[in-house]
Amino acid sequence: MAVVKGSKQDHLVVVSYDPWRRFLRKFLWLVFFISLAAASYYVGRFQARQAGVTAVMERDQLQEDLVKSQTEANGLKQRIAMLEKGGEVDRQATEGMRTNLVDMREQIAKLQEEVAFYKGLMAPASQEKGLRIQKVDMQTTAEPRRYRYKLMLTQVSSNDTYIDGLAAMNVIGYEKGVQKIYALRDLADDIDDYGIKFKFRYFQEITGDLVLPAGFKADSIEVVLQSKGAKATRVEERFPWPVKETH
User: Fold this and answer.
1) Which of 47, 71, 76, 193 has the most CB atoms in a 10 Å sphere around its CB?
2) Is 193 helix (H, G, I), strand (E, B) or coil?
3) What is the DSSP code (8-state) at residue 242?
4) What is the dotted CATH code of the domain comprising 126-240?
């Protein structure tokens, strides 16, 4: 039987063209992504609202403790006055009550400071908004020339967004009569970068230890904050050395 050779024949496939079906598929994908974005937004709003409620509850509890402490302090003052006037207690008991009263006053002052701090966070409209250096503290330790630093950062804002960046700290003073500046990474063993990373919504406390070189007398502390993002800001402030040296 003869075989006829020829060129290869192409096969044609007929496919129906349905533009509405393609449009419907794209529209459903668009609705899906919009729904997913909306769900993420409302979940974030809910979490931010819960954080705000927690801060308000802590502030209210501090206010209750403050009122209670003030009432107890007033009662102690009245009792001391009565006992001293009537001569019904000896000097040792009176001194003990006076000591308790001093401790109570210190507790009241601390509570007042904490209440003021939380009020500042809860009422941003009354303050300048943005990243702030709330407090810089330095305490002595058992080891000579070793200090424990505490840096309190806050964000006063009308929204509940996180802020992150770097916090740098320099200790300024004099060494052999010449001004000297030491960066924190030169004084702390656990710091090897230009600054300490921070990320918070309302406030963050940064703590650590530093050791001053022999012969160096600290005079002030310089704190520089640099946030990231589209609204990046730089905050720079100088504080007097907060430790009163005894030697």
Assistant:
1) 76
2) coil
3) -
4) 2.60.40.1400
